[in-house]
Design brief:
The protein is an alpha/beta fold. It contains 15 helices and 30 strands. The protein starts with 6 loop residues before the first strand and ends in an 18-residue tail after the last helix.
Length: about 625
């Protein structure tokens, strides 16, 4: 179309809701007469030319009309219904003209509206054009259709008021009220002052020094005994150079000694690197070569001198069954900042967990003490942790779920239940351990939960599922009689970022709501909040946010970006997960924005696997894809 410089549509703004649709009787319809004036700039003319050219190229490949595809899916019995918003622009008389190439405008849909149609068509009296909104009543309520109308007209008003060279994608879509709503929904509760792990642990020791702290098939250890052992080891660590901003590798087999070692490292002020001795040797070598720890805490039996050979060793005792009065040795007293090499603050690193690397190299996530207090308070309140609770230490120590297990036990006054690897095999061995040691609280990946016998978890158990998607069948099977919740959180946050309330019945578990101290944003590609129901990428900020990736400033800058919604200087983490806001203000997970996958709860980047394959002799290139089997 050529001719006039201006595009004029319609009459003063009014709205009509509830009219019958022309396409389908009973269809919700919201018709909006609207008067707008657009003065195209050269950039808009160029845009029209580009769109027309690309559409012409793409339409040559169109061989499967939308209505035929929808019909064939129904014939195949797939149960799938295709939905998609359609924007139809129909000729509106001689006044409708763009400066640029001629274009033919046609209706995109001739059948019933399956989702949402926005149509611009001539006004009956010839005064301009009318914008109509038609929606499938099975998917939209009148209130939702009205919100679409408000959002669309607000977008048009902002776009027309913007400079002529501003790209449409830079124009805000949300109404003012919607923006306030979604930002408020992403705010976790506050009011939890950050504190260090030693402060929180020693508070539990003072509260109930004789309470059971560690329980294993080999024996038990109370809070006084665990604290004394950890203090003595911490003083030795300080004397060997450990302190704030330092890193100590903990390569101790599962048991009370492993927990003692972790607590001791944290009391010294250093951060700990958990080393799962069952991991592939190449990964262990990569982790230790990358971190170059000050010390390696291990046992004489488990030590492998070829791993981090330059790092000094410190062997811990293997006497796990310790009970009785506090040790009078002054070395068993709690450390203060005067005893450490430097004062310990919540902003210092607490642990480093390695995740799969998209570039082929694993990367270490440095997490501080800052988010621990908020995490512990939330778990105590949500899971109703009480005196005598027993928390299973099931996860691999090199998986960040182990941090949840440790803190949920020792920072709430509960007991940490530990056992050797052979007792933690999903199925009858794990079920037998739960019964033998009276486990009352545990975090499991859904794939592990699916392998347990039906009677493995007694009634009243606090059950947290996370790390991967949980099916409705598992919720229906395990939620009756138990306090079952779903949790979500990447390693780059302090274990858990969002969590649901109690689950019940056959339902797809949502992501839940932000935990205290955490902020969640669902943003589009331009870092703008998306409307309710619209997919967006999950960004996290707040107290639980990690410091970044160890010795990887470029990768850190790429994933930890400035937070435009927080105070100056704050950051947010781009998770790569997609989600939407549900009607109740909760979050619903929609998958990934990249190729990352989860296998039994572990995060795997295909790029890392490709890096290993291309390093093999005779392999010039490799592509890795995930294939889900029938068993999941």
């Amino acid at each position: 179309m050529t001719g006039a410089e201006d595009l004029t549509i319609g009459v003063p703004v009014t709205a009509r809701l509830g009219a019958r649709s022309r396409n389908a009787p009973g269809m919700l319809s919201n018709t909006l007469p609207l008067r707008l004036t657009v003065r195209p700039a050269e950039s808009r003319t160029a845009l029209v030319r580009q769109v027309a050219r690309r559409l012409g190229e793409l339409l040559t490949h169109q061989r499967y009309p939308y209505d035929e595809l929808r019909r064939d899916l129904r014939l195949l019995g797939s149960g799938e219904q295709l939905y998609g918003a359609l924007v139809n622009i129909m000729p509106a008389g001689s006044e409708t003209a763009f400066t640029g190439p001629e274009a033919k405008l046609t209706t995109l849909s001739g059948g019933p509206v399956t989702d949402l149609n926005i149509t611009c068509h001539p006004h009956p009296d010839g005064s301009g054009a009318r914008v109509s909104f038609e929606a499938n009543p099975d998917r939209y309520s009148p209130a939702e259709l009205e919100s679409h109308r408000e959002r669309f007209t607000a977008f048009l008003a902002r776009f027309l008021a913007a400079p002529a060279d501003l790209p449409p994608a830079r124009t805000e879509v949300l109404t003012t009220a919607e923006r306030a709503t979604v930002l408020a929904a992403g705010e976790g509760a506050g009011g939890v002052p950050p504190r260090t792990f030693p402060e929180l642990f020693e508070e539990q020791v003072r509260r109930d020094p004789r309470a059971l702290a560690v329980l294993s098939p080999a024996g038990s250890l109370d809070y006084t005994g665990l604290n004394a052992r950890a203090n003595r080891l911490a003083r030795t660590l300080v004397a060997r150079g450990a302190g704030p901003e330092g890193l100590v590798a903990v390569a101790v087999p599962r048991g009370a000694d492993a927990l003692t070692a972790v607590v001791a490292v944290l009391k010294s002020g250093a951060a700990y690197l958990p080393v799962d001795l069952g991991y592939p040797r190449a990964r262990l070598t990569a982790m230790l070569d990358d971190t170059r720890p000050l010390l390696v805490l291990t046992t004489r039996e488990a030590d492998d001198p070829t791993l981090a050979p330059a790092a000094p060793r410190l062997y811990v005792d293997d006497g796990a069954a310790v009970t009785g009065p506090a040790d009078p040795d002054p070395a068993a007293a709690d450390l203060t900042d005067a005893d450490r090499r430097a004062p310990l603050t919540p902003g210092h690193p607490a642990y480093v967990i390695y995740t799969s690397g998209s570039t082929g190299r694993p990367k270490g996530v440095v997490v501080t003490h800052t988010g621990l207090a908020a995490l512990v308070r939330h778990q105590r309140e949500l899971l109703r942790l009480r005196p005598g609770a027993r928390v299973l230490q099931f996860a691999s120590p090199s998986f960040d779920a182990s941090v949840w297990e440790l803190t949920t036990a020792l920072l709430t006054g509960a007991a940490a239940v530990v056992a050797p690897d052979e007792r933690l095999v999903p199925g009858p061995p794990l079920a037998g351990l739960v019964a033998e040691l009276g486990v009352t609280c545990l975090l499991l990946a859904p794939s592990v939960l699916a392998a347990l016998p039906a009677d493995a978890l007694p009634g009243g158990t606090d059950l947290v599922v996370g790390a991967e998607a949980c099916s409705p069948e598992l919720v229906a099977r395990w939620s009756p009689g138990r306090h079952m919740v779903n949790a979500y959180g990447p390693t780059e946050s302090t274990v858990i970022a969002t969590q649901t309330g109690r689950l019940s019945g056959r339902t797809v578990p949502p992501m839940g709501r932000p935990v205290p101290g955490t902020r969640v944003r669902l943003l589009d590609a331009a870092l703008r909040p998306v409307p309710p129901g619209v997919p967006g990428e999950v960004y996290l900020s707040g107290d639980g946010l990690a410091r970044g990736y160890l010795a990887r400033p470029g990768t850190t800058a790429e994933r930890f970006v400035a937070d435009p919604f927080g105070p100056p200087g704050t950051r947010m983490y781009r998770t790569g997960d997609l989600a939407r806001w549900a009607a109740d203000g909760g979050l619903v997970h929609l998958g990934r924005a990249d190729s990352q996958v989860k296998v039994r709860g572990f995060r795997i980047e295909p790029g890392e696997v490709e890096g290993v394959l291309t390093g093999a002799p005779g392999v010039g290139g490799a592509v890795v894809v995930a294939r889900e089997t029938g068993a999941g």
